[in-house]
Amino acid sequence: VRLISTSIFNNANGVRMRKCRDNCGIEDSTISGSSGYGLSIESGTDVENFIFKSSTISNNGLIIGSNLFLDFGGPADRFINLQNSIISRGASLRPNCEWGPNSPIHQMTGTNSIVDDSSCSPASMIVANPQLLPLADNGGFSLTHSLSATSPALDGGNNSLCLSTDQRGFPRPVAKLMATAQCDIGAVEIQ
Question: 123-126 long-range contacts, Cβ below 8 Å, gap at least 24?
């Protein structure tokens, strides 16, 4: 299962991946506003190749759960890899990441990704408020969270991991703050 350029919002739970095999991941997508878990990756999922790339997960776990629930088990050399992505609590007071008994916390890596609390743990992620705007029609075919003008996600991505378009189908990277084009972190590239 691979979600590409998709919005999943205002559900009881967002996405549940269980026993997902080969090429599992989420790219250029937004998961937002679920009362339970935003993304749940559970036992039997082949996380050796699971990539969460240029996506935004925010404002989930409004009643129970969190943005990301990990309980996949398996060998210690398997990782969830966040690339150029945002995990933000938004209005939720719950932690961004919750770990089940089968998933040691060391099984997540992050490259040029932003989280707004330390519950996801990898030292390679930026812990900051991503300054997301409310879920809205920002162009394209699905709802997204745009970035404020002072967001640390602006021009914060790694171009070698950057997809050629954002969730809306708009080009990336686009030069803004830097002299050369640098992609934004998350599902939206500010034009």
Answer: 125/82, 126/152, 126/156
